[in-house]
Amino acid sequence: MKPVKSIWFFIALSFTGISSAQEEENKVPQVEIKGYIKDLQGMSFSDNLDSLSSINILHNRINLKVNASPKLSARIEIRNRLFWGDQVNQIQSFSKLISRYNGLVDLSHIWIDKRNLVMHTVIDRLLLQYQSEKWDVKLGRQRINWGINNTWNPNDIFNAYDILDFDYEERPGNDAIRIQYYSPKNFTVELACKPGKKKDETIAALLYKFNKRNTDWQLLAGIFQQDWVLGSGWAGNIKKAGFKGEISYFHPRKNWLDTNGTISASLMADQTFEKEWYVSLAVLFNSNPQGIQAFGGNIFVNELSAKQLFPYRYAFYSGIMKSFSPVLSMNTSIIYSPEKNTLIIFPSFSWNAAANLDINFIAQSFFAHTGQQYKTLGNTIFLRTKWSF
Amino acid sequence: MLPLRIIWLLSLIAPATFAQDATAIIRKADERAKGKSSFATFTIQVIRPNWKREIKMKSWTKGNDLAMLLVTSPVKDKGIVYLKRKKEVWNWIPSIERTIKLPPSMMSQSWMGTDFTNDDLVKEASIAEDYRHSIVGDSVIDERDSYKILLLPKPESAVVWGKVLMWVDKKDNIIMYAEYYDEDGGMVNSLRTYDIKMLGGRLLPARMEMIPAAKKNNKTVFIYNELQFDKPIDDNFFTSQNMPRLQ
Fold this sequence. Notes:
The complex is a heterodimer of chains A (about 400) and B (about 250).
Chain A: H1 3-15, H2 18-24, E1 31-45, E2 53-67, E3 72-84, H3 86-90, H4 94-99, E4 108-114, E5 117-131, E6 135-142, E7 174-183, E8 187-194, E9 203-212, E10 215-224, E11 227-238, E12 241-252, E13 262-273, E14 277-286, E15 314-325, E16 328-337, E17 342-354, E18 357-370, E19 373-388
Antiparallel strand pairs in A: 1-2, 1-19, 2-3, 3-5, 4-5, 5-6, 6-7, 7-8, 8-9, 9-10, 10-11, 11-12, 12-13, 13-14, 14-15, 15-16, 16-17, 17-18, 18-19
Chain B: H1 4-13, H2 16-34, E1 37-47, E2 52-62, E3 66-73, E4 81-85, E5 88-93, E6 98-101, H3 118-122, E7 131-141, E8 144-153, E9 163-169, E10 175-181, E11 187-199, E12 202-212, E13 219-229
Antiparallel strand pairs in B: 1-2, 1-13, 2-3, 3-4, 4-5, 5-6, 7-8, 8-9, 9-10, 10-11, 11-12, 12-13
């Protein structure tokens, strides 16, 4: 794990600025550490209970931020996971599946790789940040999040979000450079580049953001792997409801006159109601759906991108959340696609058992037509305990 | 209780000078707690029969239009920021490194499960501008002689409450006690203030308790730890790009 050395170099570099930082900004701590320990117990089964199989993950995250001066900081975030249970054994090349990353440098390590026990560490943030009143520059592994909608983000071209992967809200990082310019006239221009190992893997784009008529707007243009990409998004409201949308158009760079592009677009509306109800509705459209095979033949191991957020042409989402009290809430998400009547039901309960202790009960069920039959493709129930520090 | 329309009618026929006095008192009480700009650190305690949670925050405000709130505790919510510019509200969530624009309906809902609404915290509605005021009586609260003032929403204003009653100290214009009613005239919350002392150079209550009328043994306590007024803050401080930078 060679790159680890460079982390210490980053940190050492940052410490040199500390004495001057102390005088300038005495309130900001130089080193901030936070994180959590999670335990996730999962149980999967299909129609018959004979197929019962378990997965257990003990998961620790450490976020470290070093503020060298008010303008310069460094961040490192480490994700450690220990897996055991039937599925570790059953899923082919399990350790490869969990450690794959298509970035520039490999910052992950598998400590244990046994038949039913795997331990994996990945550094998913490692960056230096310079910020002034008008500029923000980030270099290194980072999250570049251009999405607007809650569910599907065609504008999130750097790392698209899979809503079913509830246990990784931070998402993987990109080895990238991101330069943001904040104009005092209330618009932002941003340039981000994630060089690929190969030429056709590079993502680089410009983003322009502004606010007009009580609505946030954004426009983006650039290169998305083998394509050109053009996109736009907004976040506004219709009366009391939020109304947001994102659209991206991808066109092959090679033979661009003879080829067709792909449109990925989503719309959403959300509103809160009395007695702590919250409802959100969304629709996703893809003009060139790749079908389930492009998703590894498996709807719940999604390797998705902003260009292909769902295997089918249309997908509809409805989410209903109810807070019973500040510490107890329920959320039910339903995703439906007319293609094979694909249905995903995703209910969850959240209980804040103590100030820093959260307990979640989560279920995911998948249904679709396969052959002549409408079948349950799989169910998984999870119990998650999370202690934050 | 009188139907709301009759109360409204009574407020119309109340003597004009009286109404003006009441508005002036409410305006003074409102300005006392607000200033042209403010910076505060505070603690919110949510108290329920079986449990208690504590949230610590920092806030920056400028006029009625600009506000920023930063959560500093508990650790799992640390770094969450709310920004309000006029009628728009955004929420920065550090764990997903993204700003989410909130629907306008969220303003009238309970804030993070407390007995305060979002509106109470970012003060979208102004008790001085969005209501008509009239003095309807006197009482003594905590040995302070106070006016009892009735606030009825102006027809064009989109406020959460159907009616508000406020008891304001005659000498120092401090809100001592308030009752918030829904559009059907039922009391929803009562607010009691305590621990009056010098905060940011002004005499103010350091502790406020919001008590929901319908729920027994529930309350939300708001405690100022630090308060500063009228320190200049640039408008550009209240921007979405500044949200991740707050400390």
